Amino acid sequence: MDGSLDADRPHSAPEGSGAHHDEPDGAPLLRVDGLVKRFPVRGGVLNRVVNHVQAVNGVSMTVRRGEVLGLVGESGSGKTTVGRLILRLIEATEGRVVFDGTDIFALSRREMRRFRKRMQIVFQDPYASLNPRERVRTVIGHALAVHRIGTPASRVDRAVELMEQVGLSASQLDRFPHEFSGGQRQRVGIARALAVNPEFLVADEPVSALDVSVQAQVINLLNDLKHDLDLTMLFIAHDLAVVEHICDRVAVMYLGKIMEIAPVAALYGTPTHPYTRALLSAVPMPDPGASRQRTVLEGDIPSPIDPPSGCVFRTRCPMAQDVCANEVPPLEEVGPDHFSACHMTT
Length: 346
Fold this sequence. Notes:
By secondary structure, the chain is α/β, with parallel strands linked by helices. It has helices at residues 79-86, 109-115, 136-146, 152-165, 182-194, 212-229, 240-246, 264-269, 274-281, 322-326; strands at 30-43, 48-63, 68-72, 94-99, 102-103, 119-122, 200-204, 232-237, 249-254, 257-263, 332-335, 338-340. The protein folds into 2 domains: 3-247, P-loop containing nucleotide triphosphate hydrolases (Rossmann fold); 275-346, no CATH class. The strands form 2 sheets. An 8-stranded mixed β-sheet has the order 6-7-8-3-9-10-12-11, with helices on both faces. It has a 4-stranded antiparallel β-sheet with strand order 2-1-4-5. A hairpin with a 4-residue loop joins strand 1 (30-43) and strand 2 (48-63).
């Protein structure tokens, strides 16, 4: 991720205005407040905006320094959009993202370019995220060159160091992406993200495109890097079994909203939201003889163009009552550091 990804922004302050520093000491590294993203839907002869896709609708959460927060949910729930909004790879419709006391939506293009080295991303698809025409030394060196870090010679040394850090060898620096396996490509993507020594990493489903046999290796690598580099991470996934092994807390999304957020032990041990319980009931058990009550959700996730009124999960919820159609359930504390958005459990 580099400065070339900047885009026009509806919130931007005049260039040179500086960031807003208003977070108290001891505050989370990342704070997301009321994040909203609506994508326009165009149609007709004049290609006018006829509707909007409600991709993210009022997401608020925090990520503490040094922790890994998991963001899970079905495909189409808005997880990847949240990650890209936080990094300003796409621009938010409403809301605020504060990173280490800095309101990043108030940064100018030039300020955001400098800020990007503190926040990086590992993309989902290692096949599509690497330029097939560039050797690995160039792929990793781009980030260093964009941020004017080091000399050409020191950038090569840094690339060698990163390759070894992610479990590859310096002899592979002159290879092209197609000469690596899927897992190795993802390691190169991780090395590229780490090149500028970021404090915060968005891992956007980093193992979903990999073979099962390789997934554990990449998860273990990210876990080691978290401890060795003191990384703070937003780990986006749809596989709850994977999330359990790397995350400290987990937020569950459905149709653009946070349904439940809790420490790993509480979420997996005593989930309170019916959507979370349904997701956990679908996770395969390592013991084939173990029994579990399966919660099967009927129907598909509704269209984000026309989400249900009240609780967006009510059309598939086995516990839905009249109040669920009329009132949006707030995200309320139901236990220590455990929050749930359900009229039936709060």
